[in-house]
Amino acid sequence: MWQTALNEIELQVSRPNFLTWFKNSQLLDKKEGAALIGLPNNFAKEWVETKYQKTVLGILRNLDNSTKKISFVVHNNPDAVVKLPEPKTRRAILPDQLSFPELKVDPETNLNSRYTFASFVLGSSNEMAYSAAQSVIKDLGRKYNPLFFHGGVGVGKTHLIQAVGNEIKSLYQNRVKIKYVPSEKFTNEVIAAMRAKRMETIKEKYRLVDVLIIDDIQFIGGKTRTEEEFFHTFNALYENNKQIIISSDRPPRFIPTLEERLRSRFEGGMLCDIGHPDYELRVAVLRAKAQEKGIELPKEVIDLVADRVKKNLRELEGVLNRIIFYQQTKNQEISAKAAEAIISEVVQEPVQQNVNYTQIVKTVADFFEIPSNDLIGRGRKKEIVEPRQITMYLLRDVLNLSFPFIGDKMGKRDHTTAMYAYEKISKEVNKNPTLNNKVLLIKEKLTKC
Ligand code: ADP
Ligand code: MG
After folding, report:
1. In Å, how far are 140, 207, 281, 382 from 220, measured between CA atoms?
2. CATH code at 357-446
3. Nearest-CA residue for atom 9 of ligand 1
4. pTM for this one?
């Protein structure tokens, strides 16, 4: 009967979807009008449950009209099941720190108070950067200027430069004016000021600060007007012995299209590399974060996570959050096996470097079975909203494209729309397992492009 049903299902859903979701499905049980269908993993179960339940029920009912209801279970590997609560309880369970980090942002300096030195764990990959930061705090504007940190994604650049800002703020109180700004935001301000023909607002805003902290400077490469404005701001501050602190995902010489005069300014300061965290640092960060969140983890689980999540401390935190979620939902300590399942859900094979914009759009469109043109169009249909936000998220996450570019490509939208979509999906994936599954599956498909 299931075979007949599968033939029918294949006709109703597209072939790639059929292969992805139904290939290893089984009818496990059928009695008193209730059918129990086994799916190979939790992704498939959740997905089929939310998207194809009606279709499958309709087809089974056609074959046997005593069928009244269907339910799905994970069959094959029961240990991989992470039981998920209803959406309502989900919010309450998660530590609130996860939900509203923006509430901790000081509007004056733009600094987020959660990034402190107290919560910054030292290891061999970041101790040089840490001591350079400490020297700068003691001798603002004179010791190393600019202080330039570079390192890969999730190694702690933002945490470190914000901790410097917060430390200066608490040491010097109101005597020192600090501004933290991601370079993207700086770019947007320059664009807005240009449009309004009020460039002097930028000058006033930035040239009055004593400490300027600029995050992810690599994004200003190639933006002529922004680079120019930044160059003048930089010089004005530098000449007045004001401290400039910069982060970048690579050293200045590897930022393509960065103007020569800026590059040489950056190289004239102190360049500090933050390396990938080694095993000890990963263990220490896990312990610290677990403690911060008030939970205990078995040693073998800590060791396992630290062993498997290698480069990116943000990913490490993502795994930890899911483990906490698991423990709270199940109300029991997590086993190494269940932790393993979570790790393989979170840690992704890196998406291939040669994936491009078109492939991302096409993969998302295929995944949601909507035309690519709708996805990148201007229509506001409800079912397009989430796929479109996921596309924008991926364009940023995978390709590191700038928000103005993404907005423009996605139906000539404003950069703030792209930025909003990116931030929304980044936050939601940690809280909403269904969404997380979708994103992971799409990324998995991208690895095969
Ligand atoms: P980057 O800016 O380099 O991409 P982040 O500063 O955003 O990385 O760090 C990613 C996550 O890891 C953040 O939650 C941050 O608090 C945490 N983290 C990074 N380095 C450390 C560290 N040395 N000690 C504690 N937490 C860290
Ligand atoms: Mg950062």
Report:
1. 25, 18, 31, 34
2. 1.10.1750.10
3. 156
4. 0.62
